[in-house]
Amino acid sequence: MSDSTGAIATMLSSDKTVACGKCKKQVGEAELVKRYFICPECHSYNRIPPRARIELLVDEGSFTELFGADIDADPIAFPGYAEKKATSRKKSGENEAVLCGTARMSGITTCIFVMNSEFMMASMGTVVGDRIASLFEYAISHKLPVIGYAASGGARMQEGVLSLMQMAKTSIAAKKHSDAGLLFLVCLTDPTMGGVTASFATLGDIIIAEPNALIGFAGKRVIEQNTGTKLPESFQSAEFQLEHGFIDGIVERKDQRDYIVDMLKLHTKKFVGA
What we know:
17% strand
């Protein structure tokens, strides 16, 4: 276990520029952080590193990482998988595609996980599934809510059927957490697709999303090709999913901490700092 590393402070003191993920304009990293990683030019939501995301949400210095051991799983010895993971580790600065731990939000202790799109598109392999399931089990044993930030391209096919098994494992863990009468709030970020959408990411008691996030199972083009149906331009956007009752709300980044704290207060009988 380790404490939060001050990712936001590091970025705020940076003088480097980064390219917006959508319009590709160069933006000062410090400026991007001040804007909650929203591009000042095109106003699109850029991806947030998981430790920075957590720092934006939780009480200062309260995050403690769980289940972060460096486990190099390659269950079917898939060709090139080790090299791909090594590249992802270097790019993301993390050893896997999800960061789990405990933290306080306005004094309320909670479990939290954040998926990392910079690590193999936050695909769910055995380690990711183990970490998320273990976090739910920890939350049950300590009677804690779980706050989750989902982002994924789906199951990690380099691990074969074992990656698909994580859908069942995480879903069972989420169900046990629900049966214990505990809150699971999940925020769907861009993109949340495939086996993650089809499992724990859509099992929250409260499901919110960021504006314009892509949310679905199979991609739009695949569905159109298989059904012969032309789908609307907004299909699988967060706004489309809200209109059709798939999610409970769309919450802007600047409002997410306050929204989550309000939900925690409503659903937690005992908390510090009431």
